[in-house]
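Ex. 9. Protein: Kinase-associated lipoprotein B.
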Amino acid sequence: MYFRLMHKTGIYIVEHLESRQNGELVQVINVITHPTQGDLHNRNEVENVFFHERRALSYKEKRIVDKNLLKPYEDDVLSYEDSLRNAINKMEEKLKREDNAFNKQSLLMLQNLKAEYAKQYKTDF
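Predicted structure tokens for Kinase-associated lipoprotein B:
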């Protein structure tokens, strides 16, 4: 069974593997929303902050999560690569709507991540 999981600033489709004493073991199947780039404590700032590059959780990456974080998911499931590509494209479109330093830096980070993802998953992003 598939579930929707919000993890930090990303949203994923995960598959439940097993229940454990400390939570539910799940593995990542899809990316719905790519994690937000930058310093989340200083939103929209690029000066005098560490601007974080935030990667999406990898395909089949396993996590132990609280059961309350899992929401049933019943829609179609794309390949991981297609879902990651769609999530990146949505984020890029959103960032391009407003011309500011934060969005420009976020777009640069996404360009770097796309190159890394292309190597990791052997496909274009």
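Check your answer against this statement. Residues 2-121 form a domain with the SH3 type barrels. fold (CATH 2.30.30.430).
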